Amino acid sequence: MSLTDTDFHVSMPSTPTTPTCDPEFFYSFVDFEVDDVSFCLPTQPFEQSPFFVELFKEQPLPDRSQGSAAQNVRDVQRYVLKDVSAEEFRDFLRILLDCPWRRTVSNVRALKFSPSAYLSFMRLATLWRFDAMREEVANDLYDFDNPAFTLLIGTKFEQKQLINSGLRSLVQRIEPLEPEDYDILGLDLAIRVAKCREYCRTAEGGLPALVSNDIFGLMMKDDLHAAHRTQMQKTFGEKFALAFEEGLELAAKRPRGAEPCRYY
Q1: Which of 43, 50, 77, 208 suits a disulfide with 212, CB 3.0-4.6 Å?
Q2: Claim to verify: residue 153 and residue 246 sit in the same structural domain
Q3: Helix, strand, coil percentages for the chain (3-state, nearest 5)
Q4: What is the DSSP letter of 256?
Q5: What is the pLDDT of residue 241?
Q6: How far apart are alpha carbons 89 and 86 in whole angstroms?
Q7: Last residue of a domain, one of 44, 68, 83
Q8: Are 156 and 248 part of one and the same domain?
Q9: Residue 107 clears pLDDT 60, i.e. is over it
């Protein structure tokens, strides 16, 4: 079917009219400057962040009804974002604005981003209080194919379900910890994980550990429960042990699947 086969045409109205703006699909744009790089972005995704809502309110700038590469960027008023690099901001935007059409026209890898991109997103989502998006992305990382990275995100950004997922995968994995795991986790946490693996392979550890989500038997209501919990505290500390236990319960309740587009 060609355009000539349809009743579609483009023309100017014969008399001036003022159409109403669609409440859902009429975007305003906002300009940011990061590392001397200009970004023109739709405003709506940033309205879920209390940080940006306050910024737009305290320092209002004229809205742009459309973005254009031909527009003289020197004449555009923009918000200057500090404590972030342009590349880190791009990583953040790739995940925040992840939609099927972008994967096609921008050649963005579908459904999966690099660990560094996820780290950038989680840091900035925490800094700028994108709380709902942060939780959604953390949920997507539950089954990420790099358990050391999953554990790192869980501990660094207090995502308890990821602490459970990452540690469980590392403990149950047959292969020993690799140099890459030590690089990701850091020496201190990696040594603690190695101790945990050793404990869970002993008769004392008992295992359901190698076949169960509850690798420390923390959900078991028998005499081993206290011993396992004590060992967890001894290996990782009280705060980590509590987060792991709460993460176990959260993991059992976590939603499955995610929307294909996180535009807003």
Answers
A1: 208
A2: yes
A3: 50, 5, 45
A4: P
A5: 87
A6: 5
A7: 83
A8: yes
A9: no
Residue with tokens 């791009």: 90
Average pLDDT over residues 96-107: 61
Boundaries of domain holding 78: 29-83
Q: State residue 38's pLDDT score.
A: 95
Asked which of 83, 101, 125 is the last residue of a domain, the reply is: 83
Into how many domains does the chain fold?
Answer: 2
pLDDT at 224 over 60: no
111 and 35 Cβ atoms separated by less than 8 Å: no
At residue 134, what is the residue type? R
Given a contact cutoff of 8 angstroms between Cβ atoms, the answer to whether 214 and 176 are in contact is no
Contact status, residue 224 vs residue 4, Cβ threshold 8 Å = no
When the pLDDT of each residue in the chain is averaged and rounded to a whole number, the result is 80
- CA-based nearest residue to 27, from 12, 43, 16: 43
The confidence score (pLDDT) of residue 72 equals 55
Token readout for 16 is 């001036």
Residue 135 domain-assigned (yes or no): no
